[in-house]
Amino acid sequence: MIDVARHAGVSRTTASYVLTGAGRVSTATRERVQASIETLGYVYNEGAASLRRKGRTIGVIVPNIDRPFFGEVLSGVESTFTASGYMALMVSTRDRLDQQARLLRMLREHQVAALAIIPATGSNHDLVSSIRSWDVPTVFLSRYVLGATEPYVGSDEVLGGYLAADHLVRAHRCRSITYLGGPKLGVARIDRLTGVHRALAESGSEVNLVDLTCESTVEAGIRAGHELAGSGLPDGIICHNDTVALGVARALFDAGHAGATRIIGYDDIATAQASIPSLTSVATNGRLLGETAASALLAVISGAEPAVRSHLAEPQLIVRESCGDHA
Amino acid sequence: MIDVARHAGVSRTTASYVLTGAGRVSTATRERVQASIETLGYVYNEGAASLRRKGRTIGVIVPNIDRPFFGEVLSGVESTFTASGYMALMVSTRDRLDQQARLLRMLREHQVAALAIIPATGSNHDLVSSIRSWDVPTVFLSRYVLGATEPYVGSDEVLGGYLAADHLVRAHRCRSITYLGGPKLGVARIDRLTGVHRALAESGSEVNLVDLTCESTVEAGIRAGHELAGSGLPDGIICHNDTVALGVARALFDAGHAGATRIIGYDDIATAQASIPSLTSVATNGRLLGETAASALLAVISGAEPAVRSHLAEPQLIVRESCGDHA
DNA sequence: TTGTAAGCGTTATCAG
DNA sequence: CTGATAACGCTTACAA
Questions:
Q1: For residue B284, is pLDDT > 90?
Q2: Which of A53, A60, A67, A87 has the highest number of chain B CBs within 10 A, making it the mutation to test binding with B?
Q3: CB contact under 8 A, B110 and A47
Q4: For the segment B96-108, what is each residue's pLDDT rounded down to a tens digit?
C-alpha cells in the first residue's frame, strides 16, 4: 500500500482512505490512487487490516454440510454474507460434540467476527458458556440450546409436528401414528412431538402414538421401513426428515405395502415433489432461515446490539400424494 | 502472548515456540507455559500469525453450495482441511462468471493459502490467467478449464457417458437416446456426449441421439419430461444429474408413461436408491473427489510442489430399476 | 535453551 | 486533505 501511495504521490493515510471509503478525499486524488492501484496490481490485505479493526470473516458451524436441508441453510447464509463483503468460514461437526468443541476453538483462533451455529445434538450449557466467555456475536440456527439467551432463528417445530399430526388425524382419521427418526434427545424432535401430542389431544379421539429413533439417512429409513412392515404398520408415519421418509416409502413398497399407510416428511427438500408417490412434507424453507440468521448477525456486528431478537418461522404443510391425498 | 510469556517467566520467543511446536524447548518450561496459557485463557491469534508466515485458510469455490453433489464434494474437502488444521473459506458462484470473479478477488484479499475451485460454467482462460497472476496453489475440481495446466481432480466423464449409453444400447437395445440437461457448453456435458457417441459407434447399430439442455433442478426436469412425453419418447434418456432424472421420471409418470422408457441419472445421490422406481445412475463419489483434491492441495502447500498431478476417478454405473432392470 | 529486535500490512490518532 | 507515528499479535534470524 505504501507503494501505491508513493506512486500516486499521496500519503499512506490517504491511500487507506480511498481503499476503505472512510475519510474525505477529493475526487481527483481518489481517481489517481485508483489508477495506481490498478497499474501496480495492488490487492488489499484483509488479514493485515483485521489486526487493527474488526475482521470480516464469520464462523458457520453445521452438523453436516452435505445434508440437503443444511445445504439450503448454508446457501442462504453464505450468499447473505458475501453480499455484504463478509466471508463464511464453514465447518461441519458431523453432529459430534468433540468435533464441535475443536472447531469452535479453531474459529476462535481465526478471530471470526461472529458465529452462526446449528449446534450438534446434545449441546448443552457447556457450549453456551464457552461461547459467552469468548464474547462473540452469536446466533443459534435451526436448533436451540436450552437455557441460551442468544438470538435464535429457526422454525416453529411444535407447529410443524402439529400440522403433520393434525392432518393425519383429521383428514385421514388415523388411529395409530408413528414418529420416526431424528436424534432421540434433539430439541427439534421433542418439540415436534409435543406438537403431535397437542394435535392428538385436540382431535378428541384415541390415537396410539409410537416414537422411534433412527439416523437421518436413506439407509436408516429403509431399515426402519422394513421393521415397521414386519411389526405391523401404523395408519400414518411422520418422519423426522424427507430423506428418511423416502427410505421408508421405498422399504414399504418393497415389502408390498405401497400406499398402505400415510407418510409425511419434513423440510420439503427439492426432490420431495418428484418422488412417486410425491412426498407430503412440512416445509421449513432452510434458505430463508439461513438468510435471516445471517442478516441478524450482520445487524449485530454493525452495532445494533440490542435490536436482535429470536425469530420463529412458520412451517407449512405441503400436502401431496404420500399421505393419501392423490392429486 | 506477551502476558503468557511474562506469567510463565519466559521470553516471547519461547512462548511462541511452545505454541507452534517449533524450536527446542525443555519439557519443564513447555509445561509451565502451557499452564500459563490455561490459567490466562490465552487464545492463539491465527490472523496475526498469518501476517508473518503463510496462512492456514484455503479458498473453496463451488457453483452451488446446496446442490447434493456439490454438498458431497464440499463435505470431503472440508473434513480433510480441518483435519489438518486448515479452514475452508467456502463460497458459491451460482454458476455465474461475474460472481466468480468477485469472489475470487475477495478470497485473494483474504490471503487464502490455496484454492480449490469448481469453475463456473463458461470459465475460460481469463480465469486461469487471473489465478496464475495471483500465484496461489490451485486445484480444479470436478470441472476443468481448457488450456489450464494446474492439477485437476475429477471423474472420467467420457467413461461415464460411455457406461450409460453402452448399457442402454447393449443391454436394452435402445435405438433412440436423449441426453438431457446440463449447461450447453459445460465440459462435463461435452465429454459425456463423446462417451455416448463412442458407445453408439461401438455398438454398430443405428442409434438416434438427441441432445437437450436444461437447468439442473427438479422443476426443469419435470418440464423437460412433459415436453418429451409430448414429442414422442426416446427408448432411453441419460440425464445430466439425478435431480433432473427424478423430475423427468415424475413427469413421465404423470403423463401416463411410467416405465415407458429407460432413465439413467448421474452422480448417484443418496436418495437415488430410494426413488420408485429406483434410479439407475452413474456414481462419481463426490466426497472422495473432495478429499482427494484437498489432500493434493495440502501436499502442494507442504512444499511437494512438483508431485501433484491430475487425478481422474472412474465412475461406476449403478444399475437399478429406472432403466428397466427390475430387481 | 532463551532473549533481542526487526518486520508483516494495515488502521487510527493527531497535529498540520 | 496530508504526514508522522504508534499500535495490532505474532514469527524468526541472530546473538547470547
A1: yes
A2: A87
A3: yes
A4: 999 999 999 999 9
Report the C-alpha dihedral over residues A305, A307, A309, A314, rounded to 10 degrees. -140
- Strand A138-141 vs strand A152-155: parallel, antiparallel, or unpaired? parallel
Across the interface, of A46, A66, A78, the residue whose CB is closest to B92 is A78
Q: Do residues A113 and A86 make contact, with C-beta atoms less than 8 angstroms apart?
A: yes
Q: What is the 3-state secondary structure (H, E, C) of chain A?
A: CHHHHHHHCCCHHHHHHHHHCCCCCCHHHHHHHHHHHHHHCCCCCHHHHHHHCCCCEEEEEECCCCCHHHHHHHHHHHHHHHHCCCEEEEEECCCCHHHHHHHHHHHHHCCCCCEEECCCCCCCHHHHHHHHHHCCCEEEECCCCCCCCCCEEEECHHHHHHHHHHHHHHHCCCCEEEEECECCCCHHHHHHHHHHHHHHHHHCCCCEEEEECECCCHHHHHHHHHHHHHHCCCCEEEECCHHHHHHHHHHHHHCCCCCCCEEEEEECCHHHHCCCCCCEEEECCHHHHHHHHHHHHHHHHCCCHHHCCCEEECCEEECCHHHCCCC
Q: Express each pLDDT in A45-83 by its tens digit.
A: 999 999 888 999 999 999 999 999 999 999 999 999 999
Q: Which of A39-43, A214-218, B120-124, B233-237 has the weakest average pLDDT?
A: A39-43
Protein-covered nucleotides of chain C (CB closer than 7 Å) are: 1-5, 7-14
Q: How far apart are CA A287 and CA A74, in angstroms?
A: 7
Q: Which residue has the cell 476443468?
A: B144
Across the interface, do B91 and A92 touch by the CB < 8 Å criterion?
no
Straight-line distance from CA B50 to C1' D5, in Å?
24
What average pLDDT score do residues B103-123 get? 97
Task: For residues B27-39, give the mean pLDDT.
Answer: 88
Is A14 within 7 A of strand D by CB distance? yes
Q: Which three cell numbers stand for residue B100?
A: 466468480
Average pLDDT over residues B308-324: 93
